[in-house]
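Cross-posted from the bioinformatics board.
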Amino acid sequence: MKMFRGKKVLGAIAFAAALFSSTAIMSTALSSSAMAWTLEEAAQPYKGTSIKAIFLDRPGYAAAIKLLPEFEKKTGIKVNYEIVPYENSRERQVLDFTGGGEIDVVLTDVVWIGEFAGNGWLEPVKTFTDDAKLADPKLKLDGFFPILLESFGTWGDEVYGLPFDNYSGLLYYNKCTLQQAGFDKPPATWDELLNVYGPKLTDQANRKYAFALQSRRGETQSADSFMRVLWPFGGSLLDDKFKSNLNSKESQAGLKFRQDLMKIMPPGIVDYDHAEAVNALAQGNVAMITEWSAFYSTLADPTKSRITDCLAVATEPAGPAGLKPALGGFSLGVNAQSSDAKKAAAWLFIQWVTSEEMAKPYVEAGGVSGRTTIYKDADIQKRYPFVQPMVASWDGGVPDFRPRFAEWPELSEVIAEWGTRMMLGNVSIEDGAKSIGAKVEEVLGQAGYYKGDKPLRK
Amino acid sequence: MAVATAGGTVPAASHTKPKRLVSAWHLVGLLAIFLFAVFPFYWMVATSLKTQAEALASPPIWVFTPRLDNYFEVLFNRDVLSSLTNSIIIAVSTTILAVGLGTPAAYALARFEFKSKEELWFWFITNRMLSPIVVALPIFLMARTLNLIDTHIVLILVYLTFNLPIVVWICTDQFRGVPKDLDEAARLAGASRFTIFWRIALPLAMPGVAVSAIFSFIFSWNELLYALVLTRNVARTAPVAATSFMSGYDLPWGEIMATGTLIVLPVIVFALIVSKHLVQGLTMGAVK
Amino acid sequence: MSSGTQPDGSGKPRVFPTLWNNGRAAFAFLAPAVVALAMIGIFPTVFALVNSFRRYNLAKPRDPTPFIGFDNYLTVFNDASFWGALGRTFTFLITVVPIQLALGLIIALLLHKPGLSGFKLLARLSLVIPLATAPAVAGLIGRLVFNRDFGVANAVLALVNAGPVEWLGDTTNAFIAVALMDIWQWTPFCALVLLAGLTMVPNEVEEAARLETRSRWQIVRYVQLPFLLPSITVILILRTADILKMFDTVFTMTRGGPGAATELVSVYIQRVGFRVFDQGVASAQAILLLILTIILARLYIKFVYREI
């Protein structure tokens, strides 16, 4: 599904237009150096360079693709992208890193940062920020939500990527259905969702269900389903010593809660991926879902959703341990194995697409920016109802919602397998948790965490 | 079963059914076979001609205005055209290579006497039964070292693991059917061994060679696992392209089925051409 | 054509013993194919064998890859998921193959029965379609047909007031759905192989039997079956090998899910090798599978090529 953009030559007019934007920061830049830093000038040596990016089939990437021509016109850098299914995207990139490949702009899921950075596959951002020719004085790393930069982009104390496609778990609901059932606000707690809202909104005979929790085997099961029910109940995957915490009272309570949810969810929920869950709400078959903020644009799109007038958004319900919403998202980083020219070109692209200046166009094109300032914009707040709950979630989220160490993908496979089997009732919650725990400890033991070889970093 | 007589029904035994009824059941059975075999294929083609809304309609729509939009979309915007081109290049090359290497070997197995012939022969057939995953792991590592990932050549070579056995087996059979006398007469006339093989035995064995070539082509064209592991986008084959639509976010069923149809249709044509030899090709000559 | 059995020196007196008893000439003809197959078959297998004794994870390029003896094999023996996948593969085998054989036999008998030649031709040609369909595409078709909401399987069930069935989201049903796709794809193969067997029954024998008995079953059982035994053996062994290899259909249809409900052994090994990237353990699993395959191939030779 690769698509190539035609080579575009920068125009003098675009150059001039760029000069007149954000004058306040410009003046400081002007005072510190004789000439202001401009993207056009910085890109001059890399004109004609083409770089390769890995994108997903999600709104945030469609938004970036819409903006691409502007970048290509300004810089003369050609950005080729390949859209891969999320489930194949880590595989695809790891094979590329280990087999020698052509990816320059690396897409790092929050849970891969430990693996990608730890293996030296990502170039530290410092390489570029130290280079006055490449670093935009307006870069402002502290302009990102701290939790996003920390979680998606940082490993150890080193920054490797800039937050690009940013998610918080949110509660999307059909306010018309809720009103008909006599609820004028969404459930505040998970318990309420199950016991108060659940029975009233579920009508099995007509195949209407209160809730859908996407649980398909894969990262969807481990991140969206399994981990989502641990944290709010005070549970977690690992304890402080990196031993399994799944058989603790709190973790078990969360997992048991998930089994109880099955009563108010469509049958076959273990085969629901994001597409199915979002579609179930969009078609009016399900009253509530907890999904990533990025799916707002799909749900609000009248060609894909029948409930645009009834769509409402809130933070995820709280559990006994408080509000612990799912955290997810992707940073863009530079492949450490790319040539210097491609590295520079890739950096210029990443810096541009995640910049404060591009935040508004990016959001308007359907993306979710990781910049704080954009969400203070009253106009944006009004037009995008998901903004407020999302910002609230990011202000109080768990940075290591899922451990981000290199072993996560392997653990995720284990959790995905046993988690779905638990839901299907093929194995009891307790035994399933034990099986996962044993395997998790085996993997982490082999990795050397218990011998003190490795810092306990997640 | 009724004994066929000119009169139509057989009155003799009490449990004998009238012939017309038997024929009716026979006809129903044959039509059931036809429906069973064709329906899933029909459903794929029908879906490929629907819009996304029609494809997702519940209950499914049976009558609709067919559109070719999905085909234009996948061929030109989704780049399935280049995947199909890759598939053709790879399948044709590996077939030529398999026939080029396999027919002399088949000739030798059919004609010559030598030690461990059985073992050699056994080894060929084992490859037919080998799970690709066994070879895919090390081949991936080797291809990586040799910088052959995402190239046509690596698939062309790897596909020999199943194509060579096909060619060797079908052609060994075929060569055995060619009388030795011709070879021996030619030898008396002073022809070299290679000339005998090339000018006499091979032309006579052509039907078998053609069948094995078509089977090699079909198997290579349909293969997924190796292609999934060994290609990325430059050498990506059509079956891999078909799976790449499954993004978990949006499933464009019309486009997926259009790609499926583009993959399957040429093979059906080929398979119909060799339908008489289908069994022989699939069992490698064990049953004829 | 000849008998189709394994190559042997027929008892015919040789006109030119030196012409065919020449090892060097045979070698010249065989060498290219043997070298090629050795390069892409044996060499990688040896490499896999070596890797199966090493700790080797592709996703951990900075870790050493020491030889660890039989540790990987021990891991495999203690891996419930691997044995689960292998067991599932055999369950799949004993589920689909008898059905394919039975349906195949019925189809073959219908195609063998005299009369209605036009319809018979049509039915026989239609059998080519499932066989020619790429297994990967068959899986995609399966995912569409068995969709819970807009799949045609549930629509057909609705006609008889049954369903809707949750096909791919339920452990048992997903297994059945994959099995149904496999039955669609491979029953024609069984039918055609059995049909070939039926045509070997001499006409006179069949006619004579029909005069003896009117029971269709008696004819099948005592007259036709003995001629079908070789075909059935071929089907059993090839289907066994194909199901051990089965990957494409499952990968595109369910990816082994839900849970591990449809995770057959080749799908599982692919997951370990290319998602967990544990080349050591995956190689050990692959070697075990290879051994199983060789045993089966030996059986193939013994029953099919020796005794027919």
